[in-house]
Amino acid sequence: MADNAHGGDYDAATGKTTTGHSWDGISELNTPLPRWWLYTLYGCIVWAMIYWVLFPAWPWFGGATKGLLGWNSRTVVAREMDELRASRSAMNEKLAAASLQQIEATPELLAFARAEGAAAFAQNCSPCHGAGAQGSRGYPNLNADRWLWGGTLDQIHTTITHGARWTADPDTHAGVMPSFGRDGLLNKEEISTIADYVRTLSGNAPDAGADLAKGKQLFIDNCSPCHGEDGKGNVEMGAANLTTQVWLYGPTKADIMHRIEVGGGGVMPAWKGRIDETTIKALTVFVHTLGGGK
Questions:
Q1: Is 6 annotated as ligand-binding?
Q2: Shortest CA distance to 276 belongs to which of 153, 92, 144, 91?
């Protein structure tokens, strides 16, 4: 290798000069970057400078530079939401003017109400009832066609509007199960006897040696005013139907004894004032069609 005018060596094998750097006998070639790569880099630099001027880019006091175009993602989302509302306004007007029964009888309105109701359900109801409305312990399964407060369109609408045990709404469903054990209305043995009998109402086997005759009498004396002598419940009071295999708090004897012991009941918010009436209608139709309502 020979010295060259730039301080490096001439590499005879490649016909190129070196940078003058050498490690372990290996010299670094002085190979320029491809022009297309350099032009791309310069173009990106120019684009970045243009972007800094036109769009929000640099942190600044109280926010960021606004950019000459005044663009921001919040404005875009707001515009898209306005466009969505405008596109739905005609159908929403029809939904608002129709009764619940008319909505379900009109395929176009039914499809729209179900779509809007599903979106509202996912946003407002799924945290308790689950994404598929399957419920969980203490939260009703809305697919099961078992309704604590009634399964007609009007009954579901009332429940969504005013909630259950929601003290801020004077029209809320207010039925509460007494705390038979905690308040000393029944002792442990009596609660156990009633639980054995309650399990038989839905076809489950009681414990060996259970006194079902005594359990039935205790049930009639203490539970039938709400659940009925046949155990089929009362939607006016939110008393569950005990003759099915749908259990809000669990089907085991221990689960049933615990409910008799502590009583009470779940709380559902009143959605009136939180969401508009048209959305409540859509939610009503959606929930009604989920469970094959009455």
A1: no
A2: 92
pLDDT at 288 over 80: yes
Which tokens sit at 123?
A: 């946003």
* Gap between the Cα atoms of 96 and 89, Å rounded: 10
Structural domains in the chain plus CATH codes? 2-60 (no CATH), 75-164+269-290 (1.10.760.10), 188-262 (1.10.760.10)
**274: Cβ–Cβ under 8 A, 6 or more apart, which residues?**
124
Is 125 part of any known ligand binding site? yes
Query: So what's the pLDDT on residue 8?
Result: 66
Contact call for residues 156 and 287 (beta carbons, < 8 A): yes
Residue 268 labelled as part of a binding site: yes
pLDDT at 5 over 50: no
Whether residue 129 is annotated as binding a ligand: the answer is yes
Q: Which two tokens stand for residue 90?
A: 């005609």
- Residue 91 annotated as part of some ligand binding site: no
- Does residue 185 or residue 58 have the better pLDDT? 185
Tokens of 279: 């959305």
**Which of 50-64, 166-180, 212-226 shows the lowest mean pLDDT across its residues?**
50-64
The pLDDT value given to residue 65: 86
pLDDT of residue 67 exceeding 50: yes
Known binding residue 44? Answer is no
Q: How confident is the model at residue 4 (pLDDT cuts 50, 70, 90)?
A: very low
